[in-house]
Amino acid sequence: MAEMLSRRRFLLGTTSAAAALALSGCDILDDASQGNFRNVLASAEELTRATQRFFLSPTSMAKEFTEADIGKNFRANGSTSPDDPEYLRLAANGFADWKLKVGGLVETPLELSLADLRAMPSRTQITRHDCVEGWSCIGKWTGVQLALVLDEAKLKPEAKYILFTCADELEKTLDGSGRYYESHGLEDAFHPQTILAYEMNGAPLPIPHGAPVRLRVERQLGYKQPKYIMRIDAVDSLEKFGSGNGGFWEDRGYEWYAGI
Ligand SMILES: Nc1nc2c(c(=O)[nH]1)N[C@H]1C(S)=C(S)[C@@H](COP(=O)(O)O)O[C@H]1N2
Ligand SMILES: [Mo]
User: Fold this and answer.
1) Which end of the chain has the least Cβ crowding within 10 Å, N or C?
2) What is the distance between the alpha carbons of residues 38 and 43, in angstroms, rounded to a whole number?
3) Which protein residue has the closest C-alpha to ligand 1 atom 1?
């Protein structure tokens, strides 16, 4: 699936199928390869349809609940009040100067304010959050689909993972290795229920829950949902970040793929 998906993003990320083929190393211009070119195009279309079927099939969606199911006291966990000076400065001003930086392996690096994100189409979902520590809570989240932001930035074909850098140090260390970070594969990054949430239960996202923006990835456990997001980078490998396991908790022994 990962293979299929990176292929799909790759095809969507280029201006034409011919350009995609050229980049993929296929020889499309000499006569002998013309038949082959059509076959490759046909199979690329088939691949896209298969990928779309996968995404549209209800079994691939996390369950959504009703307003009546929303938990009264959604617990805040992990960092609940980052003390990073830059974060505190941004918070003091209601995050008016906060900019989400989107970079790494993208064609168009972006800097998006909260107002920019709010101006994009939004999605609201009522879902259950499951923490590995053994508790769950249902909440309502509103935000912009991560796919829309990534499509605006246009991933380069080499991009395999999306890495999130947070404002908080969950563990105080001299070398900064205690800063929270997370990563996801492209399947989850482009999933329709994966949103950069700026509202919780109909109000601006409170600081304990990750203001100004946190990720919701509804088919994954709690620690895969970074709060206090400062940057998003498309990367081809997770090796260079933290201890190389793709996330704060992964570096401390948790599974990278925490599907539920
Ligand atoms: N930046 C950051 N993101 C984080 C954490 C954290 O400590 N820092 N904790 C994770 C864990 S383990 C859980 S269960 C959820 C908690 O989200 P909540 O505070 O909204 O309940 O956030 C996740 N994302
Ligand atoms: Mo958690």
Assistant:
1) N
2) 9
3) 227
Q: Verify cis geometry, omega within 30 degrees of 0, for the bond prior to 212.
A: yes
Query: How far from each other are the two terminal CA atoms of the chain, in whole angstroms?
Result: 17
Inter-residue contact 170 to 181 (CB < 8 Å): no
Q: Can you give the pLDDT at residue 14?
A: 37
Helices and strands per DSSP (H, E), number in the chain: 7, 10
Query: How far away, in angstroms, is 186 Cα from ligand 2 center?
Result: 22
| Ligand number with the minimum distance to the CA of 224 | 1
Nearest CA to ligand 1 atom 15: 222
Q: How far apart are CA 243 and CA 250, in angstroms?
A: 9
Task: Give, using CA atoms, the residue closest to atom 24 of ligand 1.
Answer: 226
- Per-10-residue mean pLDDT of the chain, 260 residues long, equals 42 41 34 43 55 59 98 97 98 98 98 98 98 97 98 98 98 93 97 98 98 98 98 98 98 95
What spacing in Å lies between the alpha carbon of 39 and ligand 2's midpoint? 47
Query: Any idea which residue has 């076959």 for tokens?
Result: 39
Give the ligand 1 atom nearest the CA of 167.
1
Q: Which domains does the chain show, CATH number per domain?
A: 62-252 (3.90.420.10)
User: Which residue in 78, 80, 2 sits closest to 248, CA to CA?
Assistant: 78
pLDDT at residue 35, rounded to an integer: 45
Please compute Rg for the chain using Cα positions: 20
For the chain, how long is the longest CA-to-CA vector? 67
Task: Give me 56's structure tokens.
Answer: 């549209």
Tell which one of 72, 73, 77 to mutate to probe ligand 1, the residue whose CB is within 8 A of the most ligand atoms. 77
Alpha helix (H) residue ranges in 97-190: 114-119, 146-153, 186-189
